[in-house]
Amino acid sequence: MKPVQFQIAAIILLLLSGEAFAQYPDKTQQIINLPNRDTISLNGTWKYIVDPYENGYYNYRYQPIDQQENASQVSEAIFNDYHPTYKTDRVEYDFDQSGELTVPGSWNYQDDKLFYYEGTIWYRKKFDCHLPKSGERMFLYFGAANYETHVYLNGKKLGMHVGGFTPFNFEITSFLKEKDNSLVVKVDNKRKKEGVPTLNTDWFNYGGITRDVALVKVSETFIRNYCIQLKKGSLDQIEGYINLEGKDLSQKITVEIPELKLKKEFTSDENGHATVQFSLTKAILWSPENPKLYEVNIIAGRSKVTDNIGFRSIETKGPDILLNGKPVFLRGISIHEENGIRGDRAWSADDAKMIMGKAKKLNCNFVRLAHYPHNENMIREAERLGLMVWAEIPVYWTIDWENESTYKNAEAQLSDMICRDINRANVIIWSVANETPVSDARTKFLTSLIAKARELDNTRLISAALEKHTITDNPPLFAIEDPFARYVDVLSFNQYLGWYDGLPEKCSRSTWTIKFDKPVIISEFGGGAKYGFHADKDTRWCEEFQEELYKQNLEMLDKIPQLRGMTPWILSDFRSPRRLLPGIQDGWNRKGLFSEKGEKKKAFYILKKYYDQKITH
Prior knowledge:
Elements: H1 8-13, E1 38-41, E2 44-51, H2 71-79, E3 100-103, E4 120-127, E5 136-142, E6 148-153, E7 156-162, E8 168-171, E9 181-188, E10 213-219, E11 222-227, E12 237-245, E13 252-257, E14 262-267, E15 273-279, E16 294-300, E17 303-309, E18 314-317, E19 320-323, E20 326-327, E21 330-335, E22 338-339, E23 344-345, H3 349-361, E24 366-369, H4 376-385, E25 388-392, H5 404-421, E26 427-434, H6 440-456, E27 461-467, E28 469-473, E29 476-479, E30 491-494, H7 506-509, E31 511-513, E32 520-524, H8 543-557, E33 563-566, E34 574-575, E35 588-589, H9 602-616
Parallel strand pairs: 21-24, 21-33, 24-25, 25-26, 26-27, 27-30, 29-31, 30-32, 32-33
Antiparallel strand pairs: 1-10, 2-3, 2-4, 4-9, 5-8, 5-10, 6-7, 6-9, 11-12, 12-15, 13-14, 13-16, 16-17, 18-19, 19-20, 22-23, 28-29, 34-35
Helix pairs in contact: 3-4, 5-6, 8-9
């Protein structure tokens, strides 16, 4: 073995040989329904190396090392699992002697030195694996990693992925070994101007592998993704598709719903695509009052996938939102994907149960999962509990609207979100943006995203959280004059009367004029309060101020004729580097109805009472 003569970089990054997948793969590349696949978890402890200067990726001239002439020499060392002697060899890294991080989980909460760290960390996981048998294939699946991820297995680069909240996978069938597989992952959470989201956000930039990692075993030809949902406007007709991947793609596919004694057969074309259409008689439709799910089996040769799927219709008619043909008021709340008790991203089924359980305590039937695609456990737990969902991508505040790569990134995240969650009955709204400033470039960007969303799924409603516009200051008169409003199915907007705009009493003097014959959702309103701080209702940051703000806002908003729902900001206090007021915020956005520890503030009871009355009326 030749002595290693290079920096940390050379050894780590030169796992780069091989063809890489595109950073924005087509949506059909995604394997969906991981909870019901044949998987082996790679969660647990991983070795890690902090690399703020990206020595593992660039040489001292800041050139990618994989492009250097000596790349093969360096890669030879790592491919053969070289172990340094420390006597004559110059070595500047050693995974075996390095620390450990738990995956899933951000690095920020696991090491105080990494709390505000933004940059690259290299992960390594070693594992044994029974090799796929003849007629089997193996994939490596990541639920998400924030933000740019490069993945290498046994000296081969599998590919890269951009975006911190969507899943991605790579085939590894030919790269696996029976023993001592070495999986190395470069994760970089640096904020970027051209990124989605961009540099400036009001949430914490958790870095690392933040969701599940698993090996997925499938047959040589397998069911990659599918859509089995009610046709738009119908209560009894299924219209969807099934996509196969592998060899001999034209074959018989069976769809079974045992509880309904239903069995239908279809044939895929030479590309592995089958169009699915059939009648669904005597089915109980999914609703918040009865969140009925059916076992659905899809069989194609040796490949079988089982999913628990609900069926429901969602549409609008004038100012009404119709669920299964009947008007519904969306009693909602906004939510961040965070476990405040742990001080980290939420990712597990237990996290989802805790968070959605709080929403149920408010008597919600709807949740806005802001401001990015949340993990699959959150979606499925909400579906099980009867909570309708607003799902969103992080096109947030000021995006680089005229950058083609930025648009492709946003579209890829939208496509991946829709592909993963298209069979979840509770997802009723795809949101393409939050609080974006009006301009021609921005409107073109967002309307292109809407076109993509409708191409991928024409059954759900489209919206975005817009901003209010002031018509007059005296008396206060507000409207929505955003040109983008005419493109959405549901007119949603954020407003902060009583917090950023005047005091709570301003609500009693304010009126709204909505010119659109569309349903209105107030996607955000609220104000901050530190749990346990009590004073009179005119003292900011106390619970009584937040309580009064909710009283005044609810009375004002209830007068909007088209009001059909709301998602106040927010369920629980959450981390934000923008919120630094000592003794009050201390790095937390305090607009929650719960503290980060799960303690109810006084405003909780005001919103719950309002929602209780909405049911009785």
